[in-house]
């Protein structure tokens, strides 16, 4: 009886050791997704594109706002000259223009958010594919994401793949840009 209990305990400990050894065979790492998006050349280019677009659209709106402010200042000066009926009518017109300017500003912001959101969503999908391919190529069982939406509570810094994946992403983006430049150069040469 003691022998069978001893053999049973020995078998369980051998199985436990095998499972512990198997658990150590998993290759895991993590990527700081916030840092990836902040330092990615393509993400920076998209952000810069929409900052520039925002400035252009904002400048157009600023012209309208300046015109509105000038009319509002003129309204105050002319209100006494032209009487109460004129002041009420002009005041209503100014309120309506102010609302229109507010709607235009909100519409502009919404348009910029929608357009940049579509590009950023596409970028995220692209990065997920790159990370998946990288994980398969390097033999990882799991790659976790940290950053704004953390899915890892602890990880050793040695498991951080952010720099490696960021380099691949930036190199791939630069290579795509060079391909476009080469294509454009060839088109210009053919025209000559």
Automatic annotation (TrEMBL):
<dbReference type="InterPro" id="IPR024930">
    <property type="entry name" value="Skp_dom_sf"/>
</dbReference>
<dbReference type="Pfam" id="PF03938">
    <property type="entry name" value="OmpH"/>
</dbReference>
<dbReference type="InterPro" id="IPR005632">
    <property type="entry name" value="Chaperone_Skp"/>
</dbReference>
<keyword id="KW-0732">Signal</keyword>
<comment type="similarity">
    <text>Belongs to the Skp family.</text>
</comment>
<protein>
    <submittedName>
        <fullName>OmpH family outer membrane protein</fullName>
    </submittedName>
</protein>
């Amino acid at each position: 009886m003691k022998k069978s209990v001893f053999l049973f305990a020995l078998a369980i400990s051998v199985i436990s050791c095998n499972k512990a050894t198997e658990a150590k065979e998993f290759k895991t790492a993590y990527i700081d997704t916030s840092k990836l998006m902040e330092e990615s050349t393509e993400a920076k280019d998209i952000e810069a594109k929409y900052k520039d677009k925002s400035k252009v659209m904002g400048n157009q709106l600023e012209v309208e706002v300046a015109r509105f402010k000038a009319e509002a200042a003129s309204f105050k000066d002319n209100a006494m000259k032209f009487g109460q009926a004129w002041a009420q009518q002009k005041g209503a017109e100014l309120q309506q223009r102010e609302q229109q300017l507010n709607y235009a500003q909100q519409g502009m912001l919404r348009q910029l958010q929608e357009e940049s959101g579509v590009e950023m969503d596409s970028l995220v999908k692209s990065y997920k594919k790159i990370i998946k391919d990288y994980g398969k190529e390097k033999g990882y069982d799991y790659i976790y994401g940290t950053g704004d939406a953390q899915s890892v509570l602890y990880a050793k810094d040695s498991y951080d793949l952010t720099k490696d994946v960021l380099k691949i992403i930036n190199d791939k983006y630069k290579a795509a840009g060079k391909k476009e430049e080469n294509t454009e150069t060839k088109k210009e040469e053919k025209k000559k």
